[in-house]
Amino acid sequence: MANLAINHINKRFGSLTVLKDINIAIEDGEFLVLVGPSGCGKSTLLSIIAGLDDHTSGSITIDGKSVQGLEPKERDIAMVFQSYALYPAMTVEQNIGFSLEMSKMPKPERLERVGKVADLLQIRHLLKRRPGQLSGGQRQRVAMGRALVREPKIFLFDEPLSNLDAKLRVEMRTEIKKLHQRLGATIVYVTHDQIEAMTMATRIAVMKDGILQQFGTPEDIYDRPANVFVATFMGSPPMNLLPAVVVDGSQNLSIRGADAILPLPSLAAAGVTEGKEVLLGLRPEWLSLASADTTNPTLDVYVEVVEPTGPDIFVASKSGERDIMARLPTGSQIRVGEKARFSVDLSKAVLFDAETGAAI
Q: Which of 25, 84, 307, 308 is 20 to 30 A away from residue 9, measured at CA?
C-alpha cells in the first residue's frame, strides 16, 4: 500500500474556484473519508487523485513520488464508483478478472486471484451469474472485487453505498471496514453521510464550498470541531449552539434568550474576556435529566417533542427562546408539554466566536 499527500491543490473552472488550497496527508494503511454536503468539492478532489480530472495548481504524491501527468492506469489506483459500472453481459468472474485479462495475465493465475478475492468478499457462489441476477449489495461486492483483484496502492471509493437501502448500507459499511482491517489497505472514501464518516475513518476531512474546514481523527472532529459548520454538520442530532455573553469577570456565560447563567467551560477560559459574544456548543448527549443531588449546572426547559429511537430518546425542548436538543436513555421520565431540568456536562463544551464561527 502507500501514503498519500495532497499539497495546495486548487481547481478552477473559468472564474469559479471549486477547490481552494487543499492540504491533506495520510500514512500507509489509513482510511481517509472526505465528507461534506453536495457540491463541496469532495468528488472533484477524488477524481483529481485518480487522474480523471486535472488540478489547476498544487501537487499530489503517492509514496513520495509526484503523479503529475500520469494517466489513471499509471497511478496504481483502483476506484469503486457509486453506479457499480459492471459489464452486464459478463459474468461476475469475468467482471472481476477483466483488468487482469487486459493486462495479459495468464488464465490460471488470473482465475486463482479472482477466486481469492471472491472468497474474501464471500461471493464465490456468484461467480457464474451476471450483474442483472444480483442484488444491490452483491453488485457492490463485485465492484469492490474488481478493484481488489488489481492489488493497487490506493483504493478510492466514490459514495459506493448511496444506492443501497438503509439496512444494506449498514451491512456494507461493516464489510468495508472489516476489509480494510484485513488488508491494511490505504483507502480514500467520499461520502455526504457523516455517520459513514464517523464509523469508518481513521481520519476525516470535512469540506464546504471547496475549502477544507477540518482534518483530524473522528474523535477530534466530533469533540473539538474547528468551527460552527463542522459542529453542526458532524453529529446527529447536531450540536446545540447557544448565543451567550461572557460575564462576571470572565467566570460565567449569560445565555441569550434563555434566562440562564452557566459557568465558563475551563477549556475556553483563557481565550475570552468579559463582554465577549460567543456561542456555547453542547452535544445533545451532554445533557441529562437533573437529579436532586446534581453538582452540574442546570437548564430549565419546556419539552416540545419526544422521539423514541430504540436505545435513545431525542428530546426537542425550549429554554426561553432557545431550542435545545437532548439525547436521553430509553426509559427517561419525560413528557411533552411538561417542564424539565437538564443537567449540563460542560467538561467537553466548546466555545465559538459569535462573529467568525471559529472555535475559541
A: 84
Cβ proximity of 241 and 276 under 8 Å: no
The count of other CB atoms within 10 Å of the CB of residue 164 is 18
CATH number of the structural domain 4-233: 3.40.50.300
How far apart are the C-alpha atoms of 225 and 219, rounded to whole Å? 9
8 A C-beta contact, residue 213 and residue 352: no
Q: In sequence order, what are the beta bridge partners of 154?
A: 77, 186
Backbone phi, psi, residue 232, to 5°:
-90, -25
Q: Evaluate whether 339 touches 300 at the Cβ level (below 8 Å).
A: yes
Question: What is the side-by-side order of every strand in the sheet holding 4-13?
Answer: 16-26, 4-13, 57-62, 65-66
Helix (H) or strand (E) holding 176: helix 166-183
Instruction: Using alpha carbons, select from 222, 214, 201, 301 the residue that is nearest to residue 260.
Output: 301
Q: Report d(CA 354, CA 360) in Å as an integer.
A: 10
pLDDT tens, N- to C-terminus, the chain (360 residues): 689 999 999 999 999 999 999 999 999 999 999 999 999 999 999 999 999 999 999 999 999 999 998 998 899 999 988 888 899 999 999 999 999 998 899 999 999 999 999 998 889 999 999 999 998 889 988 998 998 898 899 999 999 888 888 888 888 888 889 889 988 889 999 999 999 999 999 999 999 999 999 999 999 999 999 999 999 999 989 999 999 999 987 789 999 998 899 998 875 556 688 899 999 999 999 999 999 888 999 999 999 999 999 999 999 999 999 999 999 999 899 999 999 999 999 998 999 999 999 998
Output the CA–CA distances (angstroms, integers) from residue 63 to 27, 47, 225, in the order listed.
Answer: 9, 19, 30
Same fold, 4-233 and 240-353: no
pTM, two decimals, is 0.90
d(CA 104, CA 282): 58
- The residue ranges of every structural domain in the chain are 4-233, 240-353
C-alpha cell at 359: 472555535
Characterize the bridge pairing of strands 16-26 and 65-66.
unpaired
We find that the CATH architecture of domain 240-353 is Beta Barrel (2.40)
* Grid cell of 97 as nine digits: 478478472
